[in-house]
Amino acid sequence: MVSSEELMIVAGIIDYQRRIRELRCEAGWKILSGKTAKLLVNREDSEAEEIEPDTAVFFAAMKPDDYYLVDTEADTDAARRWHVANRIRNLDVGVRERVLAYLRENVGRPVFGEELAYVADDAGDWPRRTRELRTEYGWPVATKTSGRPDLPIGVYVLEEDRQAPEHDRHIPDSVRGQVLQRDNFACCNCGWSHAIWNPSDPRHLELHHLHEHVRGGQNTAENLLTLCTVCHDGVHAGRIALGFG
């Protein structure tokens, strides 16, 4: 954690915050502000429930104008996303719609929470609106605590530009996380995991109801199974027969 006072001394200018924005938006450095960090550990956002206690305490202790470098590698795609974010920020729609529009412009690419905060025009409820895209509207928005443990905290990925079927949209995040952990974050049919993801095979993980939801199957860990999108589509199309459940 680096304080604003330290950065002002090092920069030698009062307008150091503009330089931080340039590092974020033009050079692609993932620099988290204390303001965003506090939103990430806000208990109204379910993502906060899974953040490691030490990290939660660290983020909660940050002042709004403290800063934290999340990753030691810069994102070379940042400049393009900055122009996209500027355009979407000015759309005359709600926060949730702007966040979704930005994620859909970056399908499969990790985007930083600070970017979503900017797109949301600094509306304080953007983490909750982003979570709702997954938990209420079925968009596969993954984070470190919801299916992508390889991601840094505060990074979001829209894994595919399609919504989940209606009956799969209301699985509680706590149950989703329990099932993914139980199944070792891998497809129970073919063994695919995000560790072997590549751009030519952009699948991701979904949960499948063993006893169909339309026939009374519940959103419980016992009735859910982790499948990759290829196998999940195959099961529903009748091309794949699961040997269990």
List keywords for this structure.
single chain, 245 residues
3D structure, described in words:
With 245 residues, the chain is of the alpha+beta class. It is 38% helix and 10% strand. The chain has a 3-stranded antiparallel sheet with strand order 3-5-4. Helix 5 packs antiparallel against helix 6. It is elongated and about 65 Å long. The chain starts with a helix and ends in an 8-residue tail after the last helix.
Summarize the structure.
This protein has 10 helices and 7 strands.
Task: Walk me through the topology.
Elements: H1 4-11, H2 16-25, E1 31-33, H3 34-40, H4 53-60, E2 67-69, H5 78-89, H6 95-105, E3 111-112, H7 113-119, H8 126-135, E4 141-142, E5 155-158, H9 173-182, E6 205-209, E7 224-228, H10 229-237
Antiparallel strand pairs: 1-2, 3-5, 4-5, 6-7
Helix pairs in contact: 5-6, 5-7, 6-8
